[in-house]
Amino acid sequence: MVTRLKKSWSKPTRARLSNLPASLLIGGGLVGFLVCVALLSFVWTPYDPITIDVRNRYLPIWSDGHILGTDKFGRDVLTQLIMGARNSLFVSVVSTLVSLVIGTLLGLYVAAAGARLQNIISRGVDVGVAIPGILVAMVLATAIGPGNAAAITAIIIWFIPVSARVVIGPTMQVLSQDYIEAAFGYGRTKWFVLFNHVLPNISSIIIVQASVMFAAAILIEASLSFLGVGAQPPTASWGRTLKEAQPLMEIAPSLMVVPGLAIVIAVLGFNLLGDGLRTYYDPQQARKR
Question: Is 1 exposed, middle or buried (0-12, 13-18, 19+ CB in 10 A)?
Answer without folding.
Answer: exposed
